[in-house]
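Hey, resending since the last one bounced:
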Amino acid sequence: MAARGSLSQNRRRISVAEITEEATVGSVKKALNRHLHYAMVKDRNVATNRDYYFALALAVKDQMITRWFRTQQHYYQTDPKVWLTLLLLNPT
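The structure tokens again:
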């Protein structure tokens, strides 16, 4: 069993801070090309519409997972339940 201190330190190390938050047209194109080449193992010359569809689906999935991780990290750091309880108990 790992010590409790090491578990909390490991949780702090898990981060998606290096991943850009904005989804621009250029970043979506890069992600689509990356998935087309590495996940679908196709080149633009031989890729079908189905290959482009799945590559785009994987790129969108990456964006959704990144945002989910950011949300979970925010909840872990700020504990929004405490703020909601305070707002409900003390309305202004």
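Residues 23 and 40 are 22 Å apart (CA to CA).

Sorry for the duplicate.
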